Amino acid sequence: MNNQLRIGKIATLLVMLEEEERSFFAPTFEAVQVCEGKVGSMDLQKVISAVETAVKRSGLIEEKVYRETHALYHAILEALEGVTRGQWALGEMMRTVGLRFAVVRGEPYLHKREGEWLAVAFYGTIGAPIKGLEHEAIGLGINHI
Questions:
Q1: Is pLDDT larger for residue 126 or for residue 55?
Q2: pTM higher than 0.85 for the full model?
Q3: In the prediction, which pLDDT does 134 show?
Q4: Cα–Cα–Cα angle for 96, 101, 106, rounded to 5 degrees
Q5: pLDDT surpasses 90 at 104
Q6: DSSP secondary structure of 110-139
Q7: Which domain holds residue 47?
Q8: CB atoms within 10 A of CB 75
């Protein structure tokens, strides 16, 4: 693995760092393609759709290339497992999320034949749909394209 390009670490840093804290890592962030955003919902499908829409609009993946959309979908699901503690449910369980997300595309391996990979990170809050009763949560998913 290329120690200079750990896409999961980069995605996680992007969702956790405040704007003023990012300058130290700026050279690392420039080595990859990135899409960032925020999403809040009690509907898991809306969370997935928000990330997919942002990534496609940013040009991070080619919408008409199935393997790229497929890789993104599985990386999102893996990251959401961390946020939801393995239970892919929000509103059905009377809980809501407020998340920042980062999707990073890069080549984390030295051997070019390993190709490109996607990392999806979520960081924010999850909890009962009552303001102030949430707690922090984080999730990371990585998939090859």
A1: 55
A2: yes
A3: 86
A4: 150
A5: yes
A6: SSGGG--EEEEEEEEEEESSSTT-EEEEEE
A7: 7-18+32-144
A8: 27
